[in-house]
Amino acid sequence: MSELVSRMRRFGTTIFAEMSALAVEHDAVNLGQGFPDTAGPQPVLDAAIEAISAGRNQYPPGPGVPQLREAIAAHQRRWYGLDWDVNSEVLVTAGATEALVAAILALCEPGDELIAFEPFYDAYDADAVLAQATLVPVRLEWPDFALDSDRLASAITPRTRAILVNTPHNPTGHVFSRAELEQIAELAIAHDLIVITDEVYEHLAFDEHRHIPMASLPGMRDRTITISSGGKTFATTGWKVGWVTGSAELVSAVMAVKQWLTYVNAGPLQEGIAVGLALPDADFAAIRAQLRSGRDLLVPALADAGFTVAPVNGGYFAVADAAPLGVTDAAQLCRELPERIGVAAVPLSAFYRDAAGAKSLVRFAFCKRPEVLHEAATRLRQL
Fold this sequence. Notes:
The chain has 383 residues and is α/β, with parallel strands linked by helices.
């Protein structure tokens, strides 16, 4: 593939595509890719269908349909006490994916450094490369994947432009505590850094854990770009409806780049997500409970199969160590599992720049129907 620019050549076919192909080949339960297999809340679907049927199928406004921008602002005020101007501080994007790349392209000059907590969602690295910035990993250690603030502080240099924070965290399921976020905020303020947050699992913090937006901390409102989407909460990952909130200056910078990526997207689907954001508290609690029950089905099965499982405090995924099974190469194990027991997963090494010390770790998705997880549990216990 010599035609591809050199800086992008290391980003080939993803491990997710490889594992999904093996799942199809061997009729395996696919716990590799993080997409739900449920339809999502009916009012959300009905609102999108109504918008399509009513003919609202042309380009929406560049910043997003007014109903969704207003719903995003109301949502941030309702859940977190954050007030954003719908006309200058809220921007709708083609999922959190576009929001992330637009933010990094808008805010990082070539040669700037972007800190991300490792293991990290693989798009972060590719986005930094597209911006010709340098991604600097700061490792979160197994099994609790908690912040090491000294390690973060030592990673900051005069070239550091921004810190990328993902909470609840993919792939580990760690939910950053207020104390951890305050330590990040203290460093960001001291070094005059921007913080870009990926909060797509914001409504999926379990048990006693609570999602705390970085922008809600003292001194962080005007130096934080907050990114989220409706895909994970409302089981509509294919709709690709996300958003950015932040100060007018930061959002304007992101918009300046975003308009040359997709321009606009998913007009009628935006109306569906607007309805979702206004659902009653009980509906959000039910969504969270459904995901938590998936965790509670899968984690004991992994333990029964011989894995050691890290705490899962939020999100879609459980991380398990296969070392007790004698496994030293999780990537090879994941290539064998679809044929061997009919379950697909992904090695955690796919989320590291350097996976030394983490090569026996595997990520399993539990965002599936109970009957699917029961079947996966039965098959996993064959190990």
